[in-house]
Design a protein that fits this description.
Two copies of one chain form a homodimer.
Chain A: H1 5-33, H2 40-59, H3 61-73, H4 82-97, H5 102-125, H6 128-149, H7 155-163, H8 169-193, H9 208-222, E1 231-233, E2 239-243, E3 246-251, H10 259-276, H11 293-307, H12 311-324, H13 326-329, H14 334-340, H15 358-373, H16 382-394, H17 420-439, H18 442-447, H19 453-462, H20 472-480, H21 487-500
Parallel strand pairs in A: 1-3
Antiparallel strand pairs in A: 2-3
Helix pairs in contact in A: 1-2, 1-3, 2-5, 3-4, 5-6, 6-7, 8-21, 9-10, 9-12, 10-11, 11-17, 12-14, 15-16, 15-17, 17-21
């Protein structure tokens, strides 16, 4: 980065804001991993104070002037340069942040933290009624926020844009519709002609300490760097990074079901590897993050599914799993395990869903969020609306709200607009992987041996190192030579599941 | 707290500064409990930014004016009131903080964090040479800091005052000398006439998961509230609190030695119970902490030793320990265990030392710190000086620096002046306990049954609830009716060890 005065002054201020944001991120991480429940009010206040300082510092008039003065110094810096990219990002972020009153930022933090604690309890006790008043407040915050940010076509655009810059609700709707229609024949074929699959081997007694030993080995195998990371436990697994040298994952453990810890860990490893792979020159700036939530999700879904649910990966690693759990898996083959983890079956829990029905879980949430945001669905009616829609989409009905509308953390914060990025992530992932494979044949060859060195090198080069320098659309174009399409995902899914189900 | 304008304005600012200090404390806690080593530079920057903001906010001219304006409103508030106590504390703290340049605060944070990481590695590898340059910087920081704070008699006073307000180095020296002389006949008698004790039962294979189960039960037994706490693992155990509802402990585990995890946990529980017991009205203010490090240490040493190494406590709880470790302890009696944990034997490691030689470990550090601070001892000569002095004082010589001058965390931060508070803690503890027992006979009766309800009630009433409202001298006078004296500790130690050693 250059030594001119204004830019460096800006950089120093941005570094410090970033330090505070990372402190805030650590307080949030800790809240979910270590904090006793009783600590929630004090933690909410601490977070509110940090977020208020970040907000008022970043939205001050002088910051805008400094950004423009620094930009003026950079005349001639190439579009791709770190400096120009930082200015582009800061201009957008500054304009957006200025739309939110500081009072709102503080209130949002306080409510979110308390709502999160209420959600955890409600989920544990399967008690939607105790969460309802908090959901009302959250819906109110989301509506208020959409009002501040503003929108041209649909209210939902205002929030979606925070997670997937430049993406419109109408686009997402069209993509989801096309996806649903294109996948229908495949799902139908599986139901009618697929050989039945049995996933009973996943549901056995698996001692948690040994699960941990194995999932650590698998996280390492896919490329997660534990020397710059940490594995914790959380009710709702997530990844969080406090620098490229401290990017953490969390998972959850069931003593009678292997998949959640294993695939949760692989998923979060994909997220954390993205942060670990950002270029060191971007450190301490807001560019040292993912380009968008959708792009971030492409990394986690790629590691979880395209890598972690592939035949080659398990041909290579199943013997180790067998060694750790000889009683449970001594009689099974790598092929049995591969088929078990790829069983397509409509189910209740999004994070445990198969790759084909997963997107339907997202469509459900996408539609309910819009209804809540537009005032067409009030908090009290969410459980019934949820159950109706999941029956329509997946043909299953949750026996409890815990397995229904209380399953996800997202509505304990006003992060409406986030869910669609999960499905977009599947599409980005397939498109990235297809390109990587075409550009470097070693990617596919290695995966057949359970390795990801070539894939990770491609991701580092084309995705990770850039952090948030480019918009999602720019990044996809640069990395794959074309805009986002759902075709690669369809090709991937059709090929894989035709083989799995012997269609 | 009152509703007058200036005071409330002050309170809001103090709340926010406290939030940032607690955020900083969490970043520090995390650094020792979860953070991968690679994260150290980013974490140092985050802490430096937080500490700089706290420092510049608190030392601004307006803060001084606000403190005085708020004080003026409080005319007539009693000395004991929360409001008057807060103003007293803030005035002192403001004057002290103004003596440090912001640049120094940032530099100190950056160096301490890197020195801490260097110390951890040096200790692990028993490599003093790699730590030497950092120790030089730390000594330099301590000297610089003493210069900023200033002093009348001795340089060491400037730093001691940060941990034990109003205490002078000369006083500490006199107390330590008297203590050494008074304890000498007891130690001599034990060596000459005491029945030999065997602590081999402590050094056996103890599965760590079961140790954890037991130490959690013991922490609960002494009164630590896990619903407002958390137990983590750290190389150098410590307690940290982020609110009275989130006061955490750490310990360390050895698979072949029971004492460190057990007594480390009890020790840190004592610290954390103090923070858990501060009055809710003091929340979010700097008064919601211990009166001094010495008073804090009185709580940890009381729980660790007076309670946790008492005959009654183990008569009550040994059966549970036996149940968890039947192979190791099936043949032992509560009496055997009680004698093993009270074996007096000069040894190398401070935190594992018996109650009599513990104070000699402190005297060693107290003297070396003064020499370093005064420029009479340079970093390179510390290992030799350490080994010389521990041979003089305790008759033992560390085979490695790891068991010598690298054992403690303190010199990886410029916290010179802290060590004496450990020995003062022993004296405060004995004086508090003696008074509690006199004022409420249930204290002693309950302890004989392994319970601490009455003791905890006395501590809550006389010590905990007040937080930092009073100076250590004021608190001791209020709670016990007289100034600090080493007599109660001598009475306690003489009675206990005469019985243990059958003198």
């Amino acid at each position: 980065m250059p030594s001119e005065t204004k830019f460096n002054t800006l950089l120093e201020k941005i570094y410090e804001i970033n330090d505070l944001q990372k402190a805030s991120a650590l307080l949030g991480w800790d809240r979910q991993v270590n904090m006793p429940k009783a600590g929630v009010m004090a933690r909410a206040q601490q977070l509110a104070t940090l977020n208020r300082i970040v907000h008022t510092t970043f939205t001050a008039d002088e910051m805008g002037e400094l950004i423009e003065a620094a930009a003026a110094e950079l005349n001639g810096a190439s579009y791709d340069s770190d400096q120009a990219s930082l200015i582009r990002y800061l201009r957008e972020s500054y304009a957006d942040s200025r739309k939110l009153p500081a009072e709102f930022v503080v209130r949002r933090t306080m409510i979110s933290n308390q709502a999160h604690a209420a959600w955890e309890q409600a989920r544990e006790k399967d008690d939607f009624a105790s969460f309802r008043p908090w959901l009302e407040k959250i819906i109110g915050l989301a509506q208020e926020m959409a009002g501040y940010y503003g929108y041209e076509d649909e209210k939902y655009d205002a929030l979606l844009d925070q997670y997937e810059p430049d993406m419109k609700t109408a686009e997402v709707r069209a993509i989801f519709q096309a996806l649903k229609e294109s996948l229908a024949p495949l799902v139908e074929a599986i139901r009618e002609r697929g050989r039945p699959l049995d996933d009973a081997i996943l549901h056995q007694a698996y001692v948690i300490a040994r699960q941990e030993q194995f999932v650590r080995a698998m996280a390492t195998a896919v490329g997660y760097d534990f020397s710059r990371g940490h594995l914790g436990t959380a009710v709702h697994p997530f990844a969080a990074s406090f620098s490229r040298d401290d990017a953490r994952i969390t998972t959850r453990w069931y003593a009678d079901f292997l998949s959640p810890a294993l695939f949760g860990t692989l998923h979060e490893s994909g997220h954390a590897m993205y942060e670990q792979g950002t270029h060191p020159d971007l450190a301490r700036t807001p560019l040292a993050r993912g380009a968008s939530m959708g792009i971030h999700e492409s990394q986690s879904r790629m590691i979880e599914n395209i890598v972690g649910r592939s035949r080659g990966f398990w041909q290579a690693h199943f013997p180790k799993l067998q060694e750790i759990f000889p009683e449970q898996l001594g009689q099974a083959t790598a092929g049995d395990f591969y088929r078990a983890i790829n069983k397509v079956q409509p189910s209740l829990i999004r994070v445990d869903a198969d790759e084909l029905s997963y997107n339907l879980h997202i469509i459900l949430r996408f539609e309910l969020e819009q209804a809540m945001l537009n005032g067409d669905l009030v908090a009290a009616d969410v459980p019934a609306a949820w159950n109706d829609k999941i029956r329509q989409l997946l043909g299953v009905v949750p026996p409890t709200d815990r397995d229904g509308c209380l399953q996800d953390v997202h509505w304990s914060t006003p992060s409406f607009g986030y869910f669609p990025t999960y499905a977009l992530g599947n599409l980005y992932a397939a498109q990235f992987y297809e390109t990587a494979q075409q550009q470097d044949p070693a990617v596919g060859q290695e995966l057949a041996e359970g390795k990801t060195t070539a894939l990770l090198a491609w991701l580092r080069e084309n995705i990770h190192q850039h952090g948030r320098k480019f918009t999602p659309a720019e990044l996809v174009q640069r990395a794959t030579g074309r805009p986002l399409s759902h075709d690669p995902f369809l090709r991937y899914a059709t090929a894989k599941f035709s083989e799995v189900y012997n269609l």
